Every structure is written in structure tokens, then in C-alpha cells.
Amino acid sequence: MPSGLSSDLRADCAESEIDEATRAELDQWHTTLAMVRSQQWDSAEQSLQSLLAGDPQSGLYQLCLERVAYY
Fold this sequence. Notes:
Elements: H1 7-12, H2 20-37, H3 41-54, H4 59-70
């Protein structure tokens, strides 16, 4: 679900409409983005690998992982 969605998701959905697993994934995605923005490459890479393990088809996670691995 986080693929391309961020605060818009929270604006469009009531809190009760987001299941716990999706909320956890979204929270991890936001934490990962913070790691990337603060150049914590190793931590971001580990987090992205975890996200990708949960959603192997995610092009967003794969692309970000490739970019982070470069650094």
C-alpha cells in the first residue's frame, strides 16, 4: 500500500479503515524514508530489504533498495 501513497492515504481513509499490517508497513516506510533522507544507508538498506520481503512485487521498494545500495 505505501507504494506512491503517503499522507494522502491518511487524508482519504478513516483511521479505522487501515488494518494493522498496512499501518505497520506504512510506518516502516516512513521510518525508512527518514533514514534515506538522513543518509543512514546501512539502516535504510536493511529496512528496505525487510519491506521488500513482505511485498516482493513492490517496484518502489526495489528501486529504492537499488539506489540505497549504490551509496
